[in-house]
Fold:
Amino acid sequence: MEKFIINGGNKLNGFVRISGAKNAILPIMAASLLAEGKSVLENVPQLNDIKMMAHLLRIIGARVDFNNDVMEIDSTHCSFCEAPYELVSKMRASIYVLGPLLARFGEAKVSFPGGCAIGTRPVDLHLQAMEALGTEIRIEHGYISARSSGLKGNKIDFKISSVGASANALMAAVIAKGKTVIENAALEPEIGSLIEFLNLMGARISGKDTRRLVIEGVAKLEPVRMKMIPDRIETGTFLAAAVITGSDITIENCNPDHIKVPINVLKKIGCRIDTGSDLIKIKSPKQIKPTTIRTLPYPEFPTDLQAQFTAMLSLADGESRIEENIFPDRFMHVAELNRLDADIGVINNSAVIRCVKKLSGAPVMATDLRASAALVLAGLAAQGYTEISRIYHIDRGYDHIEQKLQKLGADIRRIKG
Ligand code: EPZ
Structure:
């Protein structure tokens, strides 16, 4: 097992280039199962979750070639409609094959996702959407078995906004017979990007970037080529890295429109931020002002930046609060941050972040993807050495984070455990 060793205290400077968005790419990879032939995805980083999804598509029978940042998926010879336990237990996003397999083959068997480090994560909305489109679902022996003799368009009204359920509903509805209307669909840019991909394939989805999506089913989709959108969470993580180390950096190849609310938070705590069409320049304040944040579905503050902003606000000049409204138990990073001398408490679904003058290096353990990123940020600012174990979590969703940070001037090394 590999570890990061960080000698904290260096200022960052220069440029960092943002990679393609993992959470946009995973559903798009699954969507390429919908058309026979070869789809080509550009700007795809070599992340472990993406490699795991490629492995799942190969099990299903697709041919996947992944070189540099281009992925080719040829779904012509797919026939095995199953996402096995070994994969789903490692990556919940495997459930994204449910909609496409049902739509193309009329059947799918997906291991029922279990617990997760960030809390309870039910899949009832995914299943309700499939049932609304005419699927018979059975849960047995730890698997979701879904079967349909032909999907039919219907109305799907989500009681809460869900990224994953919206994606699955879209991927099933595009080749269902007739019209589907999805109410309260997720607005996240990753859903917008999936809609673009599906429409490029020949789907007829209208209402992109609104909560009401109307899908006119088509008989067949064609394989396509598309460039993947930049990762807004990686962008926000580097912004927080700049602030916690008191640095000024430029972030390239990003989409500032996708993180307007986090940018406003950074302005409120004293940062100067200038944006271009695909870049952000951040100048950090000498003293971070405390603030209050509430995570909510897009376009509000993303849960996927909660841990990183918690780390950053531990050095603010006063008490901050972050209320977590998406995954109320997503606070595994707090105890580890406190090992680095942060002073953070959790009350119900809120982190109360009291001001400390400095953080100090210590051995800590990564518990999930964004928690690991928070520990890296804290380690960059801490005095002395921080050793982070179980960094396989961070490799799931950050593309060579240590190399990008080294280029910015951080003293961070990856070592074999
Ligand atoms: C996606 O997960 C992301 N994962 C998560 O990113 C992200 O934290 C989350 O959206 C919220 O933005 C991927 O895109 C692969 P949801 P997803 O369905 O789709 C409840 C990361 O760090 N819900 O939008 O699973 C759920 O409990 C990861 O990159 C139901 O009740 O999230 C939550 O409270 C972690 N029933 C809310 O909806 C369901 O059937 C939103 O979850 C589905 C969800």
Q: What stands out?
A: The chain has a mean pLDDT of 97. The chain has two domains: 2-18+230-416, 22-227. The two ends are 5 Å apart (CA to CA). Residues 2-18+230-416 form a domain with the UDP-n-acetylglucosamine1-carboxyvinyl-transferase; Chain fold (CATH 3.65.10.10).
